[in-house]
Write a structure and sequence with these properties.
By secondary structure, this protein is of the alpha/beta class. It has 10 helices and 11 strands. α1 links the parallel β1 and β2. The longest helix has 16 residues. Bound molecules: glutamic acid. Glutamic acid binds next to loops.
Amino acid sequence: MRKWLTRFAPAPTGYLHLGHVLNAVRVWEEARSHGGRVLLRIEDHDRERCRPEYETALLDDLDWLGFVPDLYPTNTFRDGRCESRQSDRGDIYSTLAERLRGQELLYGCACSRKEIVESRSPGVLGSGGPYPGTCRDLGLPLTNDVAWRVRLPSTSVTFVDRWCGPQTQVPAEQCGDLLIRDRRGNWTYQFVATVDDHLQGITDVIRGEDLLASTGRQILLGQLLGRPTPATFAHHALIMKSPTQKLSKSDHDTGVRDLRAAGWTREQVLTAAETGRHRQSSMT
Ligand code: GLU
């Protein structure tokens, strides 16, 4: 039987909220029912948005909620450097980026966000369209002051999500050549999550359906990085604040921290996450 390994991978850009709790419930539940294990990974690749105090709070909240990781338990992060914290994995990301460069898949991109939006075809509004490939053939050197992109083939990727069913995605049409490092030197989520899922041997990814659209590009990038078989994916519904708004870390009334301070018990928080019942006023 294959070794079943999933991960809980929060970004310490704010306090843990009920959306994370729901994800943790699903992750630990699935791991237990498959006789598998859970790895904790701290996704602090974005140096501007992540803060150590959020990481500390997140570890405390996980302990309080009783989610115990099988790999990299919370104390391994409290002890200092940890190989499952992305800001401690810079050398690994550089090595893998170097591998892509060796395959002539990597190029420098000097476009600003504004230029990318403006260069999109008329009718494509906002930041939703693919990168148009402006710098693809300019041969810009891969220095620290340009962004780094991976040339994506225009392949379509098909996979069967365990909960959302069969999916077909064409990453080149969704996002264009994939940004792996921004102009300030931050590795991007798409790159580091793909590298880590590959190198940490994650067999099953369980996460919210806001990341379903990222899955095709992560499978494709994983192939380019030499991952022989992709992980299996299962995306679950999110807790919504309103029909169109998902929860965000700035939601104080859904932060585990604030609920704890307001006297909620662990069981109340878990129930609220599982039922999507998240307004404090609904607890009587
Ligand atoms: N770090 C991401 C987040 O906090 C999760 C990424 C993933 O599960 O792939 O939303």
